[in-house]
Design brief:
α2 packs antiparallel against α6 and α3 packs across α4. Helix content is about 45%, strand content about 20%. The two termini are about 15 Å apart. The chain has six helices and five strands, in the order ααββαααβββα.
Length: about 180
Amino acid sequence: LKLGLASLERLDAVQLARSRMDSLMEEIGHTVAIAVWGNHGPTIVHWQEPARAVTVNLRLGDVMPLLGSATGRCFAAFAPPALVEPLLKAEIAQLGKTVRAGMPRDAAQVRALLEETRTQGVGRVVDTLLPGISGLAAPVWDASQRIALSLVSLGSSADFDASVQGRVAQALKQCAAQLSE
């Protein structure tokens, strides 16, 4: 059992996720990405755009905010609290200084947002980090049931189905569940 668990932990989750990106992108028709927890928070490590992708100024190595991005909300909701709390406290301290649509305004709203994210199974933003851009992010679990990475999709709010029950969310959740298995 220990040997089997040790070998499962050695599987490269990013490599496994990358192998599914082409089919996921074809299925949903929008940009897909992979994010992992880095030294400074959720970090984009793989990015794939369809032929008619919307232009977004996000690239490999970008660290995403916990509250303003679907990726960040996914990690903030599903990662161990001790891991995210220092960054979350810093972002909460900044909430009162800037007012943006779709952003929580205080610690109580942050708690409600993260509970809603857990219930829905995906991080979600609509016109929050980038005006006109919506995104969804689903967690992929490792063998120890900890978040290993996040599968992300984003697109123009005009034609991106950001519903947590919609086609994009369901495809992300299904792919994340397969990778988790």
